[in-house]
């Protein structure tokens, strides 16, 4: 079956971190985009020599329904020095279009889930799908009292993508949602907006023991740096979580 392509027209962009941009598009063909939070789209383009290539981007749009024509299609783009995709996105102006396909993937919350807790673990732009999942998580908190812990690995406070949104969500649901930034290089200054009791110094995989993963009531999601995903996957198996309860998606930087 042929993959259906569609144009995405740039509406706006802003910097989330020194090397990460947040892009908002709309479909240029005025069609809806039905996606499940956690899925990704692919952007197709050509290298300078004419060779076709593509990059995958998780949808960051916060929604609980199909995107109607004209609603924003949001992604986070990491800039890689000398990268062809970086040149493409940095060169876009409002109104410019890119060729896209999708959505694809099964890195999603499943309707049949009956777990008592989600462990969401991500690094860098690997937290993008978790942003899109917030409406679904809110519904599950309300309907069945599920608890959620989001461990977000970054180097510095400035690289906590969507951190203000995750903190606000945690403040709205203090008994059910924990936002745990794990900063490997630099902790936030005392009194800064990033400073709170759940900030950790180190890598996300160092703090799994604190959350006592339990096969009886946990489902874990791993997204981001492949080394982190592999390390957490092995650790979670060591705690007894069966493989179907550990859902993974690796992000590999491509030029």
UniProtKB/TrEMBL annotation:
UniProt-listed InterPro entries: Cbr1-like_FAD-bd_dom, FAD-bd_FR_type, Flavoprot_Pyr_Nucl_cyt_Rdtase, FNR_bac, FNR_nucleotide-bd, MRET, OxRdtase_FAD/NAD-bd, Riboflavin_synthase-like_b-brl
Transmembrane parts of this sequence: none
Cofactor: [2Fe-2S] cluster
Superkingdom as given in the UniProt entry: Bacteria
Molecular function in Gene Ontology: ferredoxin-NADP+ reductase activity; nucleotide binding
Boundaries of every FAD-binding FR-type domain copy: 3-110
EC category name: oxidoreductase
Enzymatic reactions: 2 reduced [2Fe-2S]-[ferredoxin] + NADP(+) + H(+) = 2 oxidized [2Fe-2S]-[ferredoxin] + NADPH
EC number: 1.18.1.2
UniProt keyword list: Nucleotide-binding
Record family assignment: Belongs to the ferredoxin--NADP reductase type 1 family.
Full protein name: ferredoxin--NADP(+) reductase
Species annotation: Agrilutibacter solisilvae
């Amino acid at each position: 079956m042929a993959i259906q392509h569609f144009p995405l027209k740039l509406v706006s962009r802003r910097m989330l971190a020194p090397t990460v941009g947040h892009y908002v598009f709309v479909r240029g063909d005025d069609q809806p985009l039905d996606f499940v939070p956690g899925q990704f789209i692919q952007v197709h383009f050509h290298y300078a020599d004419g060779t076709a290539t593509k990059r995958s981007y998780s949808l960051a749009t916060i929604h609980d329904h199909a995107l109607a024509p004209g609603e924003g299609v949001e992604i986070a783009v990491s800039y890689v020095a000398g990268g062809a995709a970086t040149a493409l996105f940095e060169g876009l102006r409002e109104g410019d279009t890119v060729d896209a396909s999708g959505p694809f993937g099964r890195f999603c919350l499943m309707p049949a889930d009956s777990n008592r807790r989600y462990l969401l673990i991500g690094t860098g732009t690997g937290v993008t799908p978790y942003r899109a999942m917030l409406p679904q998580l809110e519904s599950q908190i309300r309907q069945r009292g599920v608890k959620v812990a989001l461990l977000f690995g970054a180097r510095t406070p400035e690289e906590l993508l969507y951190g203000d949104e995750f903190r606000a969500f945690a403040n709205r649901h203090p008994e059910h949602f924990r936002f745990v930034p794990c900063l490997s290089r630099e902790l936030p200054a005392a009194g800064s907006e990033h400073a709170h009791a759940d900030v950790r110094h180190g890598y996300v995989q160092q703090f799994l023991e604190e959350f006592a993963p339990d096969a009886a009531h946990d489902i874990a999601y791993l997204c981001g740096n492949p080394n982190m995903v592999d390390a957490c996957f092995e650790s979670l198996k060591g705690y007894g979580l069966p493989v179907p309860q550990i859902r993974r998606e690796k992000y590999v930087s491509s030029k």
